[in-house]
Amino acid sequence: MPNNEQLEQLKSETQLLISKISHEIRNPVALIQSTLDLMAIRHPEITQFDEWDDIMDSMDYLKGLLNDVSEFNNATRLHLQPTHMKEFLTATFRSLQPTLDYLFIHLVTELNLPETPLLIDPTKFRQALLNLLRNAYEASPMHGIIHFYAFSKDSLLILQIEDNGCGIPPEDLSTLFQPFVTHKKGGTGLGLTITKQIIEAHNGTITVESSPGKGTKFTITLPMTS
What we know:
Largest sheet: 5 strands, mixed
Subcellular location: Membrane
GO molecular function: phosphorelay sensor kinase activity
CATH topology of the largest domain: Heat Shock Protein 90
Main location: membrane
Strand content: 15-25%
Shape: globular
GO cellular component, one term: membrane
CATH superfamily of the largest domain: Histidine kinase-like ATPase, C-terminal domain
Structural class: alpha+beta
Distance between the termini: 30 Å
Helix content: 40-55%
InterPro entries: HATPase_C_sf, HATPase_dom, His_kinase_dom, HisK_dim/P_dom, HisK_dim/P_sf, Sensor_HK_Regulatory, Sig_transdc_His_kin-like_C
Order of helices and strands: HHEHEEHEEHHEE
Mean pLDDT: 84
């Protein structure tokens, strides 16, 4: 059975391989996109065909997949810094507000947090929260409500995101965090996997509860000390 050092070496080699493959694929994808853009400029009539929309949708999916693979590969590489969580969360919500306003979705927040800074990677942690919030508003009906709770308990920071959307079928819950498993159209199956990796890299945990037709609640638990 491999020891921890061997596992870390294997992980490092795998990450390097994924990075190289992603880079090699990204170059021809960029060339194809540039060629398509040039074709649209020189022959704008082709953009009126249904097939053109299908091609552009496929290109968007491919570029999104490459971005997700890159994020998946780097999710556990953290740049930690002391962060005041109330200010951090408020800024995160503010960045999302225009989207919520456009979708007529109301975000209700309850932040009962200590003043002590928490050691996190702000960029990665924001990405994890935005992944969960995006899932929440995509599952919510127009005029839906998303609740975000943040509080401390027994030296733990607890964050909860709860929506009143369509919910998740019980048979899908066991594979929810598995890579490349998706239950929504156009998904890459990496968003929640990346989120889980980021949370666990912060020595935290993430759980989910859901009732079809009623909504879903994700709970993140983090230690208050590094």
